[in-house]
Design brief:
Elements: H1 2-53, H2 64-73, H3 75-109, H4 111-126, H5 129-140, H6 144-168, H7 172-180, H8 185-222, H9 228-237, H10 241-269
Helix pairs in contact: 2-10, 3-4, 3-6, 3-8, 3-9, 5-6, 5-8, 6-8, 8-9, 8-10, 9-10
Length: 278
């Protein structure tokens, strides 16, 4: 009987502990982010008041309530267009950053390659994406390829610059020690240069995570019948302002979500403080 009673108490206690853990997590989140939560809430309330007080027409600027209802009325449309943009942004993020990292490693180990191709990367970066997008659409058509390329190009340059700087930021004392120990170039890279570059790399990846969404949407503006960018154009031309605002909110939420995913991975990969290395 005692064991049965004890077991039943444990069975009741576990869900309570889980609920307490969830409650503590929620309270901790609000405690850490309450200034931002209050600021966002205040901006939404001000937005609602201005639209109501000045009787702004819905087609010009819908109220937050109208945008909220637009999510419910157009949920299927928003979801159907979110997935292509997410795929384009994700693929552009992966390929753009991967190529940038490989080039950065090449540049660090070959000054000739850096002098030859770094200026070309700067020239490509100087071309406005809005001007480059139509060229890529003409070459590759209206499929997924130009969207991925444009998203990748936006991610490429910040990662290239930061990765080159990070690989060159390795401690000279550590490099001298590895030479004394007759370490190979591969050992120097994996044990010294790569760990030193990780803070620089993740700083660039967080920028690229949000930029990749912008690149995919810009590409969809130029020529596409699907995706959040195409939905923005359609809603604008049809004066469906609530849907337009809802689409913009979804796009912003996607960019923020990707940013936090990269930040989460960074917290798991980089377990040390950069200043603690010295």
């Amino acid at each position: 009987m005692t064991d049965f009673a004890h077991g039943s108490k444990q069975g009741v206690a576990m869900p309570l502990e889980k609920r307490n853990g969830v409650a503590e997590a929620v309270m901790g989140f609000f405690a850490n982010h309450y200034p931002a939560i209050l600021a966002v809430t205040g901006c939404i309330a001000l937005w609602q008041f201005v639209v109501w007080f000045f009787a702004v027409p819905t087609f010009m600027a819908p109220s937050p309530v109208d945008v909220f209802y637009a999510f419910g009325e157009n949920g299927a449309i928003l979801w159907a267009n979110l997935l292509p943009t997410l795929l384009e942004a994700f693929l552009g993020f992966i390929f753009g950053n991967l190529i940038a990292i490989l080039l950065a490693v090449w540049f660090v180990y070959s000054s000739t390659a850096e002098k030859a191709f770094y200026p070309i990367a700067v020239i490509i970066k100087s071309i406005p994406i809005i001007a480059l997008a139509p060229i890529l659409v003409l070459i590759f058509g209206n499929g997924i390829a130009p969207k991925v390329i444009i998203a990748g190009l936006i991610c490429f340059f910040p990662t290239l610059v930061n990765m080159v700087q990070g690989l060159k930021a390795a401690s000279p004392a550590m490099l001298d020690l590895m030479r004394v120990l007759s370490a190979s170039n591969a050992e120097v890279f994996w044990k010294v240069r790569l760990p030193a570059s990780l803070p620089f790399l993740f700083a660039a990846l967080k920028i690229a995570a949000t930029s990749s969404v912008m690149g995919a949407i810009v590409a969809e503006w130029i020529g596409s019948s699907y995706g959040l960018g195409a939905l923005i154009i359609e809603a604008t031309y049809n004066f469906r302002s609530p849907l337009l605002y809802a689409t913009v909110v979804i796009a912003a939420g996607l960019a923020v979500a990707l940013f936090f995913v990269v930040s989460f991975i960074e917290s798991r990969v980089i377990r040390w403080k950069p200043d603690a290395q010295h």
